[in-house]
Amino acid sequence: QIYDYAKETPECEGMGTTLVAVICTSEFITVGHIGDSRCYSFTDGELKQITEDHSLVNELLRFGQISKEAAEEHPKKNVLLRALGTDEKVEFDVRSIDFEANAILLLCSDGLSNKVNGDTMQEILKSTMTIEEKGKSLVQLANDFGGEDNITIVLIDYVVSEKESG
Predict the structure, then answer these.
(1) pLDDT tens digits for the chain (166 residues)?
(2) Looking at the DSSP assignment, which residues form a beta bridge with residue 105?
Protein backbone atom coordinates (compact mmCIF):
# COMPACT_ATOMS: atom_id res chain seq x y z
CA GLN A 1 0.00 0.00 0.00
CA ILE A 2 2.86 2.41 0.79
CA TYR A 3 4.50 1.65 -2.55
CA ASP A 4 1.23 2.09 -4.45
CA TYR A 5 0.44 5.35 -2.66
CA ALA A 6 3.89 6.79 -3.43
CA LYS A 7 3.56 5.72 -7.05
CA GLU A 8 0.14 7.37 -7.42
CA THR A 9 0.98 10.56 -5.48
CA PRO A 10 3.65 12.67 -7.24
CA GLU A 11 4.78 14.55 -4.10
CA CYS A 12 5.41 11.21 -2.36
CA GLU A 13 7.48 9.65 -5.14
CA GLY A 14 10.34 7.61 -3.72
CA MET A 15 9.11 7.78 -0.13
CA GLY A 16 9.63 4.86 2.16
CA THR A 17 9.63 4.00 5.81
CA THR A 18 11.39 1.68 8.20
CA LEU A 19 9.84 -0.98 10.39
CA VAL A 20 10.80 -3.16 13.31
CA ALA A 21 8.32 -5.63 14.80
CA VAL A 22 8.49 -8.52 17.25
CA ILE A 23 6.41 -11.52 18.15
CA CYS A 24 7.05 -12.51 21.76
CA THR A 25 6.47 -15.85 23.41
CA SER A 26 7.54 -16.97 26.86
CA GLU A 27 10.56 -18.74 25.34
CA PHE A 28 11.69 -16.75 22.29
CA ILE A 29 11.08 -13.67 20.21
CA THR A 30 10.98 -13.33 16.46
CA VAL A 31 12.18 -9.97 15.12
CA GLY A 32 11.42 -8.65 11.66
CA HIS A 33 12.84 -5.40 10.36
CA ILE A 34 13.68 -3.30 7.35
CA GLY A 35 15.62 -0.04 7.25
CA ASP A 36 17.27 1.50 10.28
CA SER A 37 14.64 1.09 12.97
CA ARG A 38 16.22 -1.16 15.57
CA CYS A 39 15.63 -3.85 18.16
CA TYR A 40 17.88 -4.06 21.22
CA SER A 41 17.91 -6.59 24.03
CA PHE A 42 18.87 -5.52 27.55
CA THR A 43 19.83 -8.55 29.66
CA ASP A 44 22.02 -8.82 32.77
CA GLY A 45 22.91 -5.12 32.58
CA GLU A 46 24.10 -5.27 28.96
CA LEU A 47 22.48 -3.73 25.89
CA LYS A 48 22.88 -5.65 22.61
CA GLN A 49 21.69 -4.55 19.19
CA ILE A 50 19.71 -7.42 17.64
CA THR A 51 19.02 -5.93 14.21
CA GLU A 52 21.47 -4.61 11.64
CA ASP A 53 20.70 -1.38 9.79
CA HIS A 54 20.00 -1.56 6.06
CA SER A 55 22.00 1.60 5.40
CA LEU A 56 24.92 2.73 3.30
CA VAL A 57 26.91 3.70 6.39
CA ASN A 58 26.35 0.31 8.02
CA GLU A 59 27.66 -1.41 4.89
CA LEU A 60 30.77 0.80 4.95
CA LEU A 61 31.22 -0.08 8.63
CA ARG A 62 30.67 -3.84 8.05
CA PHE A 63 33.34 -3.90 5.34
CA GLY A 64 35.83 -1.95 7.45
CA GLN A 65 35.86 1.13 5.22
CA ILE A 66 34.98 3.47 8.10
CA SER A 67 35.25 3.35 11.89
CA LYS A 68 32.32 3.23 14.32
CA GLU A 69 33.12 6.81 15.33
CA ALA A 70 33.11 7.98 11.68
CA ALA A 71 29.81 6.15 11.10
CA GLU A 72 28.09 8.17 13.84
CA GLU A 73 28.92 11.48 12.13
CA HIS A 74 28.83 10.35 8.48
CA PRO A 75 27.01 12.83 6.17
CA LYS A 76 25.16 9.98 4.38
CA LYS A 77 24.00 8.36 7.59
CA ASN A 78 20.36 8.60 6.50
CA VAL A 79 20.80 6.80 3.15
CA LEU A 80 18.89 3.51 3.32
CA LEU A 81 19.55 0.52 1.09
CA ARG A 82 16.22 -1.11 1.97
CA ALA A 83 12.96 0.45 3.12
CA LEU A 84 9.28 -0.38 3.14
CA GLY A 85 7.49 1.26 0.21
CA THR A 86 10.42 2.08 -2.06
CA ASP A 87 10.08 -1.03 -4.21
CA GLU A 88 7.12 -3.22 -5.08
CA LYS A 89 8.76 -6.21 -3.37
CA VAL A 90 10.97 -5.81 -0.32
CA GLU A 91 13.01 -8.18 1.77
CA PHE A 92 12.78 -8.12 5.55
CA ASP A 93 15.37 -9.60 7.86
CA VAL A 94 13.72 -12.06 10.24
CA ARG A 95 15.35 -13.96 13.08
CA SER A 96 14.35 -15.68 16.30
CA ILE A 97 16.32 -15.46 19.54
CA ASP A 98 15.87 -16.66 23.10
CA PHE A 99 14.00 -14.19 25.27
CA GLU A 100 15.42 -14.48 28.73
CA ALA A 101 13.49 -13.81 31.92
CA ASN A 102 13.93 -10.29 33.27
CA ALA A 103 15.06 -8.96 29.90
CA ILE A 104 13.90 -5.73 28.30
CA LEU A 105 13.41 -5.30 24.57
CA LEU A 106 13.80 -1.84 23.10
CA LEU A 107 12.30 -1.22 19.67
CA CYS A 108 13.06 2.22 18.28
CA SER A 109 13.19 4.45 15.25
CA ASP A 110 16.42 6.19 14.26
CA GLY A 111 15.07 9.30 15.98
CA LEU A 112 16.31 7.68 19.19
CA SER A 113 19.34 5.69 18.01
CA ASN A 114 20.81 8.64 16.06
CA LYS A 115 20.66 10.91 19.12
CA VAL A 116 21.27 8.66 22.13
CA ASN A 117 24.26 6.31 22.08
CA GLY A 118 24.12 2.72 23.26
CA ASP A 119 26.05 3.38 26.49
CA THR A 120 23.53 6.04 27.52
CA MET A 121 20.58 3.81 26.59
CA GLN A 122 22.13 1.03 28.66
CA GLU A 123 22.54 3.29 31.71
CA ILE A 124 18.90 4.39 31.53
CA LEU A 125 17.68 0.80 31.16
CA LYS A 126 19.92 -0.24 34.06
CA SER A 127 18.40 2.42 36.35
CA THR A 128 15.77 1.77 39.01
CA MET A 129 13.14 3.83 37.18
CA THR A 130 9.86 2.20 36.18
CA ILE A 131 9.58 0.98 32.59
CA GLU A 132 7.38 4.01 31.79
CA GLU A 133 9.95 6.40 33.30
CA LYS A 134 12.74 4.75 31.31
CA GLY A 135 10.76 5.24 28.09
CA LYS A 136 10.01 8.88 28.84
CA SER A 137 13.64 9.48 29.79
CA LEU A 138 14.92 8.03 26.49
CA VAL A 139 12.52 10.16 24.43
CA GLN A 140 13.32 13.30 26.44
CA LEU A 141 17.05 12.75 26.00
CA ALA A 142 16.69 12.34 22.23
CA ASN A 143 14.68 15.58 22.16
CA ASP A 144 17.30 17.33 24.32
CA PHE A 145 19.97 16.29 21.78
CA GLY A 146 18.08 17.85 18.87
CA GLY A 147 15.07 15.64 18.19
CA GLU A 148 14.76 16.62 14.52
CA ASP A 149 13.34 13.22 13.54
CA ASN A 150 10.37 11.33 14.96
CA ILE A 151 11.28 9.44 18.10
CA THR A 152 9.35 6.22 18.41
CA ILE A 153 10.09 3.61 21.06
CA VAL A 154 8.50 0.51 22.53
CA LEU A 155 9.86 -1.11 25.69
CA ILE A 156 8.88 -4.70 26.46
CA ASP A 157 9.73 -5.82 29.99
CA TYR A 158 9.75 -9.60 30.33
CA VAL A 159 9.24 -10.26 34.02
CA VAL A 160 8.77 -13.80 35.24
CA SER A 161 6.14 -14.06 37.94
CA GLU A 162 6.61 -16.32 40.97
CA LYS A 163 3.90 -18.61 39.57
CA GLU A 164 5.85 -19.04 36.27
CA SER A 165 9.23 -19.55 37.93
CA GLY A 166 8.27 -21.92 40.67
Answers:
(1) 899 998 899 999 888 999 999 999 888 999 999 999 999 999 999 999 999 999 999 999 999 999 988 988 898 988 999 999 999 999 999 999 988 878 999 999 999 999 999 999 999 999 999 999 999 999 999 999 998 889 999 999 987 665 555 5
(2) 41, 156
Instruction: Burial-class residue 156 by CB neighbours within 10 Å (0-12, 13-18, 19+).
Output: middle
Is the pTM here over 0.85, yes or no? Answer: yes
Q: Where in 12-163 does DSSP place strands (E)? A: 19-24, 28-34, 38-43, 46-49, 93-98, 103-108, 153-158
Q: What is the rounded distance in angstroms from the CA atom of residue 112 to the CA atom of residue 159?
A: 24
Count H helices and E strands in the chain, helices first.
7, 7
